Amino acid sequence: MNAHVEDRTPLVEMEEISISFGGVHAVERASVNLYPGEVVALLGHNGAGKSTLIKILSGAYRRDSGVIRIRGEEARIENPRDAKSYGIETIYQTLALADNVDAAANLYLGRELLTRWRTLDDAAMEARAREVMGRLNPRFQRFKDPVKTLSGGQRQSVAIARAILFNARILIMDEPTAALGPQETAQVGELIQHLKSEGVGVFLISHDIHDVFHLADRVTVMKNGQVVGTGRVEDLTKDEVLGMIILGKCPPGATPGPGAA
Amino acid sequence: MNQTAGGAPDRAILARANRAAGDLARFSGRAFRAMEIDTRFLGMIAALLIIWIGFDLLSGGRFLTARNLWNLSVQSASVAILATGMVLVIVTRNIDLSVGSLHGFLAMVMGVVQARYLPEILGFGHPAIWFVTLMAGVLLGAVVGGLQGFLIAYLSIPAFIVTLGGLLVWRGAAWWVTSGQTVSPLDSRFILMGGGPRGAIGDVATWVLAALACLALLLLQAAARRRKRRFGFPTRPVWAEALMAALGCGAVLGAAAVANAYYWPAGTVRQWAAANDVIIPAGGLQISHGIAVPVLIALAAGVVMTFVARRTRFGRYVYAIGGNPEAAELAGVNTRWVTMKIFMIMGVLCALAGAVASARLQSATNSQGTLDELLTIAAAVIGGTSLAGGAGTIAGAMLGALLMQSLSSGMILLGLDAPLQNVVVGLVLVAAVWLDTLYKRRAG
């Protein structure tokens, strides 16, 4: 990613976000931002707060304090519907699929297509589902089966298709390749490249540091609910990033956050 | 098997028979798939037929008579109405234990409204009394159901607890409406909702309705096929469509024929003839009952609820919430509001069931509907509704209600003691759910 990106208004700015559950500060004064056409990876151990931070952006959790700006304007995100209205789509680690209904029903859950009689237009939804799924997973044919009968990779395709179906501007991917084989992982990589070229911003949460160096433009590392630091991938080595994750030590190539040791 | 000279050919025949049986099974499996019929639903119909035929044999042919089947349909109506709503409740992993008490309470309120208040306001015997009464019951049902739904959805009190409270509260409230007095007689039009010779629509209307139902069935099937064609999806083979249509229409016309084969009792005919100056011919006058009004109400509830469950956004959300509440929430579904609406619908159905049940008894008593919540839940579960949520059909639940009522009626017909009847019904419920878990494990 080039320097000129920095001049543009960020797509997302999350500033000084805090949330606690009971007495636990799950996220404390965390700030991240995301530019159009950029992939920002969030790294950290389990429980570091990355998924929680991202769930605040997707509307699953309500923050206690802090500001979210979308394209420079303060955004009110209090539930998943609000987030979707800002073009924020999320692929959850758990996939968040309704297992008992079919792929098309999942793709359109919450945003069903209706006939002029205000009834569900299942045929139209299935047709569009076939189109989108066809691009992601051309061999997929089981549109009539409940998604619980699908393989892990197929379910993942459904979750990804749902996120890109509505022309997301901001895409959150929480461990998108965890359930996938090498070939499907490569497909997700291609998809991310394609979305980038269309100016979509992607937050990527991953445990796989190789994935991250391959796909991301910048990394933000979190530890104990705080941001250790943020830096460009080309300015950092894998060892430095591991040092951030494990020790909370911010190397010179990155901008330190409140959680830096 | 003995090793006789004929042993080898016997085995060959056996093997061939085995193969044929296998082929038949495979073919029928294919046929069901081609027709896209739920094998589970077929299983239920088979179970119902076995029960019917079994009771008929045991009772010496007294079960499969037009009269008994007609009565069976009327007796099943109120639980069937409740079951259509209980499906949605259970699909979303909730439960409603209050439906028996609530329908008793609403029946008492409707009884008082039609027997005490409205005659004073509108005048005794006013033709609008039944309708105003029913609407009042429906409205109150929606409010009470909505209140319970609010406590469950927005205050996150478990449905089991809220409706267990409701079970006690509304039973007590039912007593309180009249301090325990039975309300009787009810409005003369209102009681038509309960069936009886006058509360049935007669043979002509029954045939017309059956014909319309067949037409609707065919049109729906054609429309579905056209839609699939338009989007280039695979369609059923024509023979499968034709067989489906034939079976559907056959069932409808058969039911109409049975309802029309049950004639008014001679006493009722004499009264009617005297009132209408009709002279009864020498051979006697045969007047068909036709489909009973409560059965029509239950069928209408079934059609509407099936439509709601399968063709509306709300219905889609109900099933999605049942499958994965968190996913539905994350997808932007307002799960709380959907839950509250389900309980409002349940309240409305309680009013309908209360009207049907009190109209059948021609009086409202504060004990009406006692234990109906359990019959309703049992009907839904026997009908394939999964207590784990996410799965269940309205038609299955209604069939479940019919099945339960068939058991009770059959045992009464055989003269079994009431406590023994309960034992059997309880065992059947447990066995049905056990069979279902086996089926699900096999189907994956």
Helix segment tally of chain B = 16
CATH architecture of the largest domain in chain B: Orthogonal Bundle
Helix content of chain B: over 70%
Rg of chain B: 24 Å
Uncertain ranges of chain B: 1-6
Calculate the terminal CA-CA distance of chain A, rounded to whole Å.
Answer: 28 Å
N- to C-terminal distance of chain B: 37 Å
Structural class of chain B: mainly alpha
Q: Which fold name corresponds to the CATH topology of the largest domain in chain B?
A: ABC transporter involved in vitamin B12 uptake, BtuC
Strands of chain B, count: 0
Structure description:
The complex is a heterodimer of chains A (261) and B (444). In chain A, helix 4 (122-136) packs across helix 5 (152-165). Chain A has helices at residues 50-57, 80-85, 103-107, 122-136, 152-165, 182-197, 209-215, 238-247; strands at 12-21, 24-34, 39-43, 65-70, 73-74, 88-91, 170-174, 201-205, 218-223, 226-232, 254-256. Chain A has a seven-stranded mixed β-sheet with strand order 6-7-8-3-9-10-11, sandwiched between helices. A four-stranded antiparallel β-sheet of chain A has the order 2-1-4-5, covered by helices on one side. Chain A is an alpha/beta fold and 261 residues long. Chain B has two domains: 62-200 and 294-444, ABC transporter involved in vitamin B12 uptake, BtuC, CATH 1.10.3470; 201-291, no CATH class. Chain B has helices spanning 7-35, 39-58, 66-91, 99-122, 129-153, 159-178, 202-230, 238-260, 266-275, 293-311, 313-323, 325-330, 335-361, 372-382, 394-413, 418-443. Chain B starts with 6 loop residues before the first helix and ends with a helix. Chain A binds chain B through residues 58, 60, 79-81, 84, 90, 92, 94-101, 105, 109-112, 114, 118-120, 123-124, 126-127, 146, 149, and chain B through 227-228, 230-233, 310-313, 315-317, 319-324, 326-334, 390-391, 444.
Secondary structure elements and pairings:
The complex is a heterodimer of chains A (261) and B (444).
Chain A lengths: L11 E10 L2 E11 L4 E5 L6 H8 L7 E6 L2 E2 L5 H6 L2 E4 L11 H5 L14 H15 L15 H14 L4 E5 L7 H16 L3 E5 L3 H7 L2 E6 L2 E7 L5 H10 L6 E3 L5
Parallel strand pairs in A: 3-8, 3-9, 6-7, 7-8
Antiparallel strand pairs in A: 1-2, 1-4, 4-5, 9-10, 10-11
Helix pairs in contact in A: 4-5
Chain B lengths: L6 H29 L3 H20 L7 H26 L7 H24 L6 H25 L5 H20 L23 H29 L7 H23 L5 H10 L17 H19 L1 H11 L1 H6 L4 H27 L10 H11 L11 H20 L4 H26 L1
